[in-house]
Task: inverse folding
């Protein structure tokens, strides 16, 4: 598995399967086999193994997280949401669990509940950039530009070289006619991605 090529992954899968036959109650083997299936894009098989891993040891957050991710990929949003919430209970110090729980709600159309979940996560992890960025993007889509800009600027402060964050913040600022704030973010975006035509287009729009 060191090279990660399909042939090596397939060989590793057969070794994992043999190990699983010999030790069917091993949590680590079931979880490892699930990840191996996933790397081979064998999504259903991966889901089965992650389900088994959570049954073997329901107290392990990494298995719940893996089960949530695979169900999210399969668009099984209710099952994914439940797994992410369980992972968050088991590992409250890891903000990815609630962030992904919110993602399930957002994709299933429960937009207000998704935003509330991300805000709940930020109450205990206020500087978590990925959640701030996701919340900001969601608020922008909801037309809540002032709230969006606050979240995006907080995220961008931690990552001034992140062009995507700077662009998202600039768009929210433009919607609020906050052109100086928009230009500040666009200047950061231009430094990070000087060949991005959208950056220069927005700079031109702001400067008109």
Result:
């Amino acid at each position: 598995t060191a090279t990660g090529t399909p042939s090596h992954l397939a060989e590793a899968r057969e070794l994992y399967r043999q190990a699983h036959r010999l030790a069917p109650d091993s949590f680590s083997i079931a979880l490892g086999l699930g990840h191996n299936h996933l790397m081979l894009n064998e999504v259903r098989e991966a889901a089965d193994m992650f389900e088994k891993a959570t049954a073997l040891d329901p107290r392990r957050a990494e298995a719940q997280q893996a089960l949530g991710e695979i169900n999210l990929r399969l668009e099984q949003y209710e099952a994914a949401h439940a797994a992410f919430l369980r992972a968050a209970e088991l590992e409250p110090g890891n903000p990815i669990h609630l962030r992904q729980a919110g993602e399930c709600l957002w994709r299933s159309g429960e937009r207000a509940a998704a935003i509330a979940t991300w805000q709940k996560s930020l109450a205990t992890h206020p500087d978590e950039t990925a959640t701030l960025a996701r919340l900001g993007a969601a608020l922008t889509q909801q037309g809540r530009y002032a709230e969006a800009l606050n979240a995006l600027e907080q995220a961008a402060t931690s990552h001034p070289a992140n062009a995507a964050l700077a662009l998202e913040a600039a768009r929210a600022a433009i919607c609020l006619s906050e052109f100086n704030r928009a230009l500040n973010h666009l200047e950061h975006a231009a430094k990070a991605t000087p060949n991005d035509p959208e950056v220069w287009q927005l700079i031109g729009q702001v400067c008109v």
User: Anything to note?
Assistant: The chain has twelve helices and no strands. The first helix runs from residue 6 to 22. Residues 137 and 168 are 7 Å apart (CA to CA).
